[in-house]
Amino acid sequence: MPAPRTPRRRIDIEAGRAAVHAWRGSTREPDLHAPEAAVARDAAPAIDRATLATAVRFTLEELASRAPGNSLEVRVPPFGATQCIEGPVHRRGTPPAVVEMTSEVWLALATGRLAWADAVAVGDVDASGERSDLSALLPLIAE
Question: How many other β-carbons are positioned within 10 Å of the β-carbon of residue 101?
Fold first, then answer.
């Protein structure tokens, strides 16, 4: 079997990093040392849909570049999906292994704000198939 090709990037690396940075700023964690300054969702700077989409697509491209292949499809509707991880080649229909989650959960996993096991345990991740455990590949972008 030939080695999997690294997918071509569609999102500029600097634009992708900037979008992830903007997402981080819009989802600030409460400061545990100053509980009176806990950040409410409406107090955090808002992120527009295009920036959120860019952050999701960039991190999906990052995953595919680090683990090229076609045996697992990672879906983050409505913003994107990617195939990754070496294994049986998938060509049509539903792949043998699929992982799906919301954009907030995906970005939290990709940046290390949320652990894979915790997301799976509370049902934030829908994962099926033998190659659907992404814990060894996450986080993609450390805080």
Answer: 21
